[in-house]
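Section 3.1 - Work completed
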Amino acid sequence: MTLLLLPLMAEAQKVPTEKDMSAYLFTFFNDSTHSLFMAISYDGYNFTPLNHGEPIISGDSIAEQRGIRDPHIYRAPNGKFYIAMTDLHIYAQEKGLRTTLWERDEKYGWGNNRGLVLMASDDLIHWTYHEARIDLLFPEHFGDIGCAWAPQTIWDPTVNKLMVYFTILQQPGGRLRLYYSYADEAFTTLETEPKLLFDYPDDKIQVLDADICPMPDGRYFMTYVAQENPAGIKYMISDRINHFDDYHAEQIDTERGGCEAPNVWKRIGEDKWVIMYDIYSIKPHNFGFLETTDFKTFTPLGHFNEGVMKIKNFTSPKHGCVIHITKAEAERLENYWK
């Protein structure tokens, strides 16, 4: 795979609105490659991969650990696209990329990575990339970090900055919690020390994989995972983008086993929102879907290829994200990756 690394355009481009949108872009990875994939849908139900189902960007070309996970894509009000990813390869020892199971002693826990990969683009084809090592950026409180996982981005209108929120195990023996920070304008690093996004009421439960979606009334709908029995999807609502305390005890997914990595996206031209999530507890691995119109009641839509949601020419995507794109953007991607 060829990764195109070009300077970003200095002038912000015109940002299309929902009425300009005609397609959906789905980003994801898989365990076998630890690389970035993309797929397109014109109806929000049927997704077809770009590049004949091969990676768009190879993880070993951009990540310190030679692999990426958990890609999240976002179109910001400045017109640019941002992808944030976990820098982690869980099979690096098997692939001969390192001699140990993890980078560090296993006392740091599963994965025990310390970095995020930050990418930016004007056109979804040409990307810049940078590594953000949390332990090096913020050594006083995060120098002995256990892990940094599943980063996502959203524009904070109160400070006009890109907020990056992600899962951190602050030290060995601690518990996973959700934090937020702010990126620099060029999306090359994090400028502010991570702060808690919220604290779970049960201090024995680990929480991870937050997704924040703007609501029509100006508030924010956050889905996340609580590692209970089984791990599942919960939600909170807040009028502040970086603080949540509206706790709801119930899980909204309908899975019998564990699931993770929620992502919420709107159906173009409809007052319907899809909650997509990753079901790691079933074989073959699959995604599950819910739909809501009021952010209080949730209708199950089944799994990929077991209901109304379909994928063609690829299987077992992991930790995905969907955004709206224009017809011209979709066609440009399809023509480029032919």
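Second construct:
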Amino acid sequence: MGFRCGIVGLPNVGKSTLFNALTQTAAAQAANYPFCTIEPNVGDVAVPDARLDRLAAIAHSAQIIPTRITFVDIAGLVRGASKGEGLGNQFLANIREVDAIAHVLRCFEDGDVTHVENRIDPVADAETVETELMLADLESLEKRVVPIEKKAKTGEKDAKEQYALMMKALALLRDGRPARLAQLTPEEREPYRQLNLLTEKPVLYVCNVDEASAASGNRYSKAVEEMAKRQGAGSVVISARIEEEVAQLPSGERDEFLASLGLKEPGLNRLIRAGYALLGLITFFTAGPKEARAWTVTKGATAPRAAGVIHTDFEKGFIRAETIAYDDYVSLDGEAGARDAGKMRLEGKDYVVQDGDVMHFRFNA
């Protein structure tokens, strides 16, 4: 199950520096974790989770395998991208292929780094990109809605439902608001997502600040944070320059370097976790002598769906899931202690997986 988060931004906002730090981190992880592949514009990185190390220590696991998220470096955008300006067509096509957007905003002043619009205003930068995406969505939908409307008028059920969803999106876009703000029922969410609208994708604003502001942010990042709250979006403060330096340091020197800057952990850790949360994902674990492993499912996934993440046969032949809450697993020193204390539960097909569950699946081959 691959989850892709596209990194976007105007030119000279630090997007490439940030992505380089991510890919260097991924390269460093390759020595410790399997299945870490890197392409020129893709960084597949582990989601930091201290719980996994704790489980591995208790289960005496020989191997630790974290869950992963893929970051995609998307071509820079300029005003007019919706009409094909710059690399607009490539930019829009690449965004359609990701599950969420990490929007890098320049929140630093540097006379040596020019801004494409000759000003430092991250909120205005965000609006520039959002506007281009909304214009692209609007043009696309207005073309696609015409034949669907004709089918809907004949009484075709699927067409009527799709037309209603398209009109919800069009109403927002015509009002200058992104499609992700639509009020949807649970049943409408998946067909709405299948409209494949650029502004339907969840957004995380990445405030790229100067080194001195990495720990506490600055007035630019605070303005972005306020904007994100109004939109119901996420935001994270990071210094791409610092992250690039950290990624190149030997592991033994990183903590000391970060501490000197007032930082407890690399900003990339926060970015990766924020991207993971943005996609509505949770983690469950399997733990044993062979390996301790983190697995990804979407919030609300049932036990058979989680089993299918490990292997499709597990889902097809699902019988039950032996489940221990993370806190119980740790406090009772593992599976045996949890079982003896009555904290191992046998869950059926309707069980909704909770973040941190330690699970073992029974199934018919």
